[in-house]
Write a structure and sequence with these properties.
Layout: E1 3-8, H1 12-21, E2 28-33, H2 36-44, E3 50-53, H3 62-71, E4 77-82, H4 87-95, E5 100-103, H5 108-117
Parallel strand pairs: 1-2, 1-3, 3-4, 4-5
Helix pairs in contact: 2-3
Length: about 120
């Protein structure tokens, strides 16, 4: 079964690194978004069964995206990917519905562990 995922980050390099860190045997249809508005568009178009979401972006940050999806009764599994590893940030994203938190730079083993713990893999 192919899983529709959206990778959201304003940095093309960060998006590329996350995509390379995906489990090699995971069948995915990848959509990339460079900001929060694009992420919401992808979600609303059904392209985000799983969303990997950065927190710091210029047009709409990850917290705003999470808040909107929370208000819309989201139907997606959101994993936050950020260099901001402060406990307060992790707690806030979980309160807004994120199922996991991965520190940048992304490592395949950690990504797989989060996806397995969330029942995605």
């Amino acid at each position: 079964m192919v899983t529709a995922i959206t990778v959201v980050d304003d940095s093309a390099v960060s998006r590329k690194m996350l995509i390379k860190a995906l489990p090699p045997d995971w069948q995915v249809d990848i959509t990339q978004a460079s900001g929060g508005r694009e992420a919401l568009d992808a979600y609303r178009a059904g392209k985000a069964e799983v969303m990997f979401l950065d927190l710091t972006m210029p047009d709409m940050d990850g917290y705003q995206v999470l808040d909107i999806l929370y208000q819309e009764s989201r139907r997606t599994c959101i994993v936050v990917v950020s260099a901001d590893i402060q406990p307060e940030a992790q707690q806030r994203v979980k309160q807004l519905g994120a199922i996991g938190f991965i520190q940048k730079p992304v490592k395949t083993a950690h990504l797989e562990a989060v996806l397995k713990a969330c029942g995605i893999l």
